[in-house]
Amino acid sequence: MASNPLAELSKSGQSVWYDQMERKLLTSGTLRRLIDEDDLRGLTSNPTIFEKAIAGSDDYDQALEKLATAGKNRDEILEALMVSDIGDAADVFRGVHDRTGGLDGFVSIEVRPGLAGDTAGTVSEARKLWKLLARPNVMIKIPATPEGIPAIEEAIASGINVNITLIFSREVYRQVIEAYLRGLERRVRNNEPVDRIQSVASFFVSRIDSAVDKLLETEAGKTTDPSRRKDLESLQGTIAIANARMAYQLFSEEFHSPRFEALRKRGANVQRPLWASTGTKNPKYSDVMYLEQLIGPLSVNTVPPATYDAFRDHGKVKMTIESNLEAARSQLELLESLGISLDEVTRKLTADGVKSFSQSFESLVTTIDARRVDVLRRFSRRYTFRLGKHAAAVSEANARLQKDQTISRIMKKDASLWKTEPDHQKIIKNSLGWLNVAESVKAGVGELKSFAESVKGHFDRIVVLGMGGSSLCSEVVRRSMARKPGYPELLVLDSTHPDAVRSIARHDVSRSLFMVASKSGGTTEPQMFHRYFYERVREQKGDRAGENFIAVTDPGTQLESEARRDQFRKIFLNPADIGGRYSALSWFGMVPAAIAGFDVATLLDHAIEASVACQSTEVEANPGARLGAAMAALAQRGMDKLTVVADPPFDSVGLWIEQLVAESTGKEGKGIIPLATEPLLAPQHYGQDRLFVWVHGKGSFEEGETRSRLDALEKAGHPVIEHQLESPLDLGEEFFLWEFATAVAGALLEINPFDQPNVQESKDNTRRLLEEFKSKGKLPQQSPIAGGDGMEVYGVGVDGGSAEEAMTRHLAQIRPGDYVALMEFVAEDPKYDLIIASIREELMKSFRVATTSGYGPRFLHSTGQLHKGGPDKGVFLQITATPSEDLAIPGEPFSFGVLQQAQALGDDQSLSSRKRRVLRFHFTSNVESGLRKLLSMVQAAAPAHSTAGSR
Question: Residue 373 has what pLDDT?
Fold first, then answer.
């Protein structure tokens, strides 16, 4: 090192710091090499340096993309990148810091230039950066503006290391020293330590020569006096060094004063002068002039890369800071006598410096924002909109979203976007927590994982006891993700049919963890499940039965009270401002997923990525807004049958989408009618009322066949939207995307997508019927209009004749644009699913009509709202059956069989009261046989113009 001029500088008492920061310095090992070979002692940066580093390389792309997709805005991204780089650099310099006893090894980070005129803002940001970096060898840079001076004192008094920047004049330098001393004295008065606080005062050099030389040249060009011209020319390239040497004299005086000696005895450190802006800008001057002429003890020179390399190559080390002081004074006096005010020059340089850094900062955040938007656009490119002749209608809806500022208003939770009536606004304002629930749940994932680990091994299964939105997310997750070895199997009970309840009870209940899920805490089905399974567990475990139960509910509900009474293992209180169907990403969906061992942290990350994409106010880059606009615009033009085509392993996601869209939009006689699990047929089997949305994985087995069929549908004029998912963990993205799209569609349809007035109606009907059962011992009896061979038919307006004739007359009511809804109050069974799929396919081919299918009572909490509150386009086939073996409910006079009958009758009454076209088929014996008979009846009812048999 002896022959290295840079290393020799440190022996003179002057430290060399590097005026450059870019990630490559760290990742390439260059910074470590400079420390080892050149005795580099520190590093500084500023917005201009960061702007060049981030905009001029791809070193930050990966980190920037991760931050963008994590939902960070441009300011948060910039702060994270800067804090990361500065922190990593400080860690590299930590050895230098320790070796020099805390004198050196510092890395500086600057408060935002926009705060240069804001004392309180500067102090606040300095404290925040100091806390974020949490390292003793970091300095916070504060500009020496009039508002910055008191901020310096405050920061020092707070125990923060400060690098004061943009000092040009000796008067301002005096104020900087004063602020430093006052800050130290305040700490002494408060009996706080001062020995670990370090500060440097960055005195800018070459910029002064650049400014003064220009004035000298102008004056020399104007004067006709040879003597004056000679004086003006003699000062070229001298003022900056003269000014710095006089500043060093001020430093020596102040830090050898009795005032500082008192502080030194308490352990205080001198505030070292730092020569900044030491790169030579005038090619006529030596490229190392501002290093060689300003060497002195207890000082720092922060050197840009080119000057650093030049000094290593040919720099000369000699004590020069106090050389020719009289000449320096004379040069400064001569400048003033020639009519050039150095004070005016330095004031302008300070203002220009703040402006320059501010412009660099704005350029930097603009660059970052552009990169952030590009990330979001790449995210949105996974969504393909093939709208054909319907593109113009959707573009109009997009323009309306832009004009009404719909996206920003959603993110601001502006209830007036949907409704202005006070009652509606109250509901809406208490329903928008889903917008940021993924972030809040992500913050609690650590605790959730710990709970999951605590029950792992104690239970073989986690059983969700819930209905609709409280359970459907778990059903989708269960079907989409492979079971995790060693973790409990995820099961869902959302049927009151005795066989469905019995199928869960067949397992060893002592090895089952039951999650009772109810937002309101008073929903009938989860209440009955709770009672039944709690009693079953109590039979085996006695007073310890509560160990097998957890609850997810809103605060203050009846379920919370009952869970505490029964000593549940854990109660998860969900945010009250989230409706059930929007609760997938809340505790309702994430608790059972975590217990089953699924990666909820990544699932939530993907949801947050979707949330960020949906914040884009540029509609074309916003997949959620585009989807919502397409749904609403096409529905308003008759294409209101949202047909969800989902390939494995995502084939169950349509069930969740169905309940979300139907319950949210089916009201006020309006509605988007979602169709899940419907067979995908050839174009001739469809009317002109379809929007197809295809959700699939990458390279799935079914992808080729599905694509071929959808291509044919697109060619036939049907709009098709495609969404490709990478893995089952992308379900987090899917959940948020559809929630946002549904909210957007609600705004365009001018309905409140957060209430469900007709769902409560069916619940009330069920309760009334159960009360009648309690008082009379039986449910109200209806008279069948047809029957025989294990089947009874109930309905109005299709009286007389056989069951087959009743079916024919009922289906004859189908009009263009209608849909047929199969509502099965039977236990879910794969055998039944196959027959129901055949019935739907036959209806589609024979009547060119859309079809839906839902098991009761699940659908009552989802599509049931659309059936009653939506448009009168439904032709309903209700299917009920007498259970082969009923099941008692502890503490109730009615059984599960009676409960399900009451739910079916209540829904039938609700539909009939609205003059909906409904026919009920009740199977008194074998359900599978009854469904096959229904299939035959539908086939027989086909009109003469049927397209059956064609493809």
Answer: 67
